[in-house]
Amino acid sequence: MDAGAELDPVHPVSPPAPRFRPAGLTTAEVAERVARGAVNDVPVRSSRSAADIVRANVFTRFNAIIGVLWVVMLIVAPVQDSLFGYVILANTGIGIVQELRAKKTLDSLAVIGEAKPSVRRDGRTAEVSTSEIVLDDVIELGPGDKVVVDGVVGEADGLEIDESLLTGEADPVLKRPGDPVMSGSFVVAGGGAFTATKVGREAYAAQLAEEATRFTLVHSELRSGISTILKYVTWMMIPTSVGLIVSQLVVKDTNLKDSIARTVGGIVPMIPEGLVLLTSVAFAIGVIRLGRKQCLVQELPAIEGLARVDVVCLDKTGTLTEGGMDVTELRPLGGADPGYVRKVLGALGESDPRPNASLQAIIDAYPDSADWRCTESLPFSSARKYSGACFSEGDGESSTWLLGAPDVLLPPGDPALDEINTLNEQGLRVLLLARAARELDDDRVATGVRPTALVVLEQRLRPDAADTLRYFEEQDVRAKVISGDNAVSVGAVAGKLGLPGAENTVDARRMPAERDGMARVLDQNAVFGRVTPQQKRDMVGALQSRGHTVAMTGDGVNDVLALKDADIGVSMGSGSEATRAVAQIVLLNNSFSTLPSVVAEGRRVIGNITRVATLFLTKTVYSVLLAILVVCSQVEYPFLPRHLTLLSTLTIGVPAFFLALAPNKERARPHFVKRVMRYAIPGGIVAATATFTAYLVARHHYTGPEALQAETSAATLTLFLTSMWVLAIIARPYTWWRVALVGTMGGAFLLVLVVPWLQEFFQLKLVGTTMPWAAVGIAAAAAALIEVTFRWVDHRFPA
């Protein structure tokens, strides 16, 4: 090979295949490999480490700025002016505690939901943790299993593996002994076993798998929006702070310590430090709440994503219906002997070591006949919609049988289809048993089959499915049932559950293949049957092309591609290993009714953070503008740090915490930065202008050595009342507790104004009556202007 030639990353040149040992390794051999480190030790974890959480909460850009300012204030000013530092300590502590609680919840749920591969050791098969697999282990595979390490196939029984997540190639690959298998692929049909040839970080896609399943805070519009805002805030702070420092320390010939205190008082409120903390806390509490409902959030942005979902695609089997089925009737066709048919069905059940739900129902109803022997089998595949087997019957005869979808195995117009359609209209699932005239490995084995019997199965509807579908309808989330089953049967099940549009079921085999046409059909209809795995993926893409945010639920291997491509993938805990691996959310209790709780939690987090962000950023805007006005006017900065700590606590910090955790059913909308800043900018401008106006009026009104304190008190009153009106707007629509919250904050400020020792502590004392009432009047005018401005913004710049 040319030294300069590139290797194919997905199908690299492999060393000679190891000798396959059907019994697997011995205990001693496993221990020897563990001792030398030949173990699958990729540190896949569901959450950040405790050290990472502490580091992320403590070592932030704004904590560093505030930390330096806090140290300065501890040196030059009374403890009252250092309160902002203690608030940051408390906030950081709360953030760390909540994220550690979320980590504990995630880790415990991850252990419950962890897939355990079947490994052969000492001649026996046992389930072990993925991290316990060692080099040369023999690992068994079945439908839905994910290949967790690289290896070479040793046994194969119709083993078909989907490598699309690695290669992008949608068609499953038939694997035979000696063929390589790659970590990150999954089994779609058949079974087998392989020998592990690469484990740990050497396995292909191991790093990809580690990153995909690790707790992450990326791909979040909310977090990226906040980062964007903070970036611009930082750039605004730098020149403003420099100007303020020069103004207070150089231009004004005042007491040095007092100048430093007022300079710090101008810089600190520019920092919306609590916004980042509140976002982390809201996400963490969301994870904890969902964890209590046995819902594993594998990626935190999934909470945000579900809040934005406007279309949810549901697989029928295992989602709307329970996993199990019951055989309710057997209808022989063409005079077939019922006893012989039962023998065939019993033998078919025995031919598949990992039966799906339909075949399991047949196995339960028809025991195997001991004198029939399976000579070849064709496992069920969602793509072809049937399975099959060749048998050597006890009398020496041989026969080939297929079991699958009648409308796939029978030609259009076959008389049996009318009878089948009647059963499907009742919501029953019907399988056709047919005798094949061709060999099982013939690509056209399903052509020219002889119908022998209909197997009628009853599906068990989930008792909570109707209520869940009703919830989505009420919340303006459109539900689409996308199933591989017969379209009429799927429509009947959806109709029983009250899904709007269930009467107009679409057979996906007649859908347009091109994206625009498919999207048009999807917008107009709600129930789709006979959908192939690739079509499910295409349908998700078609919906996304129309601007929809799509959630996909499923539990079978046929759902993997669609789950991967959907904005949010939701898997059932009892689903295949492959679906659990690619989904962002796993419902460990297998309850479809948990989904409304997840959607509601997402809406609560995103809607409330959008609300309270306006409070934080209004403060940033008025703080920057006040500093600019002070610099331009060459006057003392009106506030000490203690005043703004008090204002921030009462008008932002405490209310924001309660508002962020309140119920909120509004669907999250895009453009977070635009939605927040359209209120924060005008609100901040009005608040700063009103406050500075009151301050200038007070400077002309008061004289003498105590004038500055009186001026500060008047300005503080104006800013508090103006900020309270912003809070009152953000708190709408009012409930008893929201009114009580706003009232309590106002009462707390009033307490500071009337209690002597609090007046002294915060240096707030209203002098006379003229100026305090003037401050109230200015604040009332500012509140009216904010009200009018916010309504104009709503009309002029709708979100």
TrEMBL record:
The chain crosses the membrane at residues 58-77, 232-251, 271-290, 612-631, 643-664, 676-698, 710-730, 737-758, 770-793. It is found in: Cell membrane. Its main location: membrane. Residues 118-211 form the P-type ATPase A domain. GO terms for cellular component: plasma membrane. One of its GO terms (molecular function) is ATP hydrolysis activity. It is a multi-pass membrane protein. SUPFAM superfamilies: Calcium ATPase, transduction domain A, Calcium ATPase, transmembrane domain M, HAD-like. Keywords: Membrane, Translocase, Transmembrane, Transmembrane helix. This is Cation-translocating P-type ATPase. The lineage of its organism: Bacteria, Bacillati, Actinomycetota, Actinomycetes, Kitasatosporales.
